[in-house]
Amino acid sequence: MAEDLAVADVEAYTGGRMLASDAETQRALDAALARVRRFCGWHVSPARTETLTVDCPWSSLLILPTMKIRSITSITVDGNAVDLTTVRTSADAPGCLETVNFQPWGGYRTDSGFGRVAVALSHGFSAAEAADFRQAVLELIDSTSLQKGTGGSGPLVEKKVDDVTYRWSGVVDRFPGSIAKNPLNESLLYQFRLLPFA
């Protein structure tokens, strides 16, 4: 199994209705991944190496936009390296780091600020760990492709031939500029979603 979803996965999931060789399949995959990742608040899968820049908190806790830290390469505050032996990750709160001496990340309780902490790390779930995430993306692509050109949202639940009656289970876009609710399987995705807190 490839770590990231590919057009071949879409073709297999749709039983060949959407072909891997069709440019529309790649566009649908890219759009679905972008939508699902935006809903979750982070990339989720596959594991990737990158540097996350976050605000410097007024406490010893640092919250990163991830639910699966694999390894941390470096942490800097205003370009100054943090000794990684003085940092621990939470066993219960994914993405939460703490200084072992309970000192604020900026050095002083009043020394906080936006975008001052850079964390170089590897994070994200493997394909096997994110099977539900992959399933939700493929379901979204499949459902959305079946609605193309219908003006409806959700699966078609009624169809009348004479006097034409169509009815979808989702919300239909009735007003110009409004957004119809598309079939996003949120129940599968909530386990991967970052929740905002203050």
What would your notes on this structure say?
The chain has 4 helices and 9 strands; from the N terminus they run ααβββββββαββα. The protein is α+β, with helices and mostly antiparallel strands and 198 residues long. The protein has 2 domains: 7-44 and 128-192, no CATH class; 48-123. The protein has a 4-stranded antiparallel β-sheet with strand order 1-7-3-4, with no helix packed on it. α2 crosses α3 (131-147). The radius of gyration is 22 Å and the shape is elongated.
Low-confidence stretches: 171-180
- Give average pLDDT, whole number: 83
Total DSSP helices: 4
User: How would you describe the oligomerization state of the chains in this entry?
Assistant: single chain
Shape: elongated
State the total count of DSSP E strands. 9
Termini separation comes to 39 Å
Task: Find the structural class using helix and strand composition.
Answer: alpha+beta
Radius of gyration over C-alpha positions, nearest whole angstrom:
22 Å
How many distinct folded domains?
A: 2
Biggest β-sheet: count, sense, barrel? 4 strands, antiparallel
Q: What is the topology, as strand order, of the major beta sheet?
A: 1-7-3-4
Beta-strand percentage range = 25-35%
